[in-house]
Amino acid sequence: MLSVGLFLHDLNFYDGSSEILIAGMQHTRTLQIAIDKQQAWVAKLKGSKRELQEWRRKGKRLLYNMMPRHVAQLLQDGVLANSICESHKLITCLFAYSIGFKDVVQKLKPDQIVESINATVNAFDQCSEHFDVFKVETKADSSYMVVAGIQDRSVGQRRGSTT
């Protein structure tokens, strides 16, 4: 009431105007509280949406790192996992392990160990991309597993097509 320049002694207590004014002010305050709660809820919802998008991005990256791209895409498109079965005439599995890795790392500083592992894995990754093989797993002990013969169908189709 002060914001509009009214005081209690200005109100007529014998008619309904004072009750209407007070009820209107209470209703305004109730609406303001509801608006504030809704704005807080919207802000929380936006944060949850960002978090969900981040988790989806991480999940998608993990999915695409775990399996061939065309299989991951089928799963993303909603195809049931047990209906994705493929037969390949010939595949090759390569298991690479750095012999003496544990002995070597005992002599290196931590940053040198990381650089060594990164260099090894990057070299394997470049070869994997060049020869179109699927990297199945890389471990911290510098072991590496790839499978050849299960090429990405979309890549194979692009290679076979003439544009």
Describe the structure.
- With 163 residues, the chain is mostly helical.
- The protein folds into 2 domains: 1-66, no CATH class; 85-160, Alpha-Beta Plaits (2-Layer Sandwich).
- It contains 5 helices and 3 strands; from the N terminus they run ααβααββα.
- The protein has helices spanning 17-66, 69-76, 101-105, 110-130, 153-160, and strands at 92-97, 134-138, 143-148.
- A 3-stranded antiparallel sheet has the order 1-3-2, with helices on one face.
- Mean pLDDT is 80; it is low at 154-163.
- InterPro entries: A/G_cyclase (IPR001054), HNOB_dom_associated (IPR011645), Nucleotide_cyclase (IPR029787).
- It is an enzyme of class 4 (lyase).
- Residues 92-146 form the Guanylate cyclase domain.
- This is guanylate cyclase.
> Largest sheet, if any?
3 strands, antiparallel
Low-pLDDT stretches: 154-163
Instruction: Spell the H/E element sequence.
Output: HHEHHEEH
With helices defined by DSSP (H or I, 4 residues minimum), what is the helix count? Answer: 5
The count of β-strands is: 3
Mean pLDDT: 80
Count of discrete structural domains: 2
Structural class: mainly alpha
Q: Which second-level CATH architecture of the largest domain applies? A: 2-Layer Sandwich
* CATH superfamily label of the largest domain: Nucleotide cyclase, GGDEF domain
The portion of residues assigned to helices is 55-70%
Largest beta sheet: strand ordering: 1-3-2
How large, in whole angstroms, is the Cα Rg? 33 Å
The shape, in one word, is: elongated
- CATH class division of the largest domain: Alpha Beta
Beta content comes to 5-15%
In the CATH hierarchy, the third-tier topology of the largest domain is known as Alpha-Beta Plaits
Distance between the termini: 77 Å
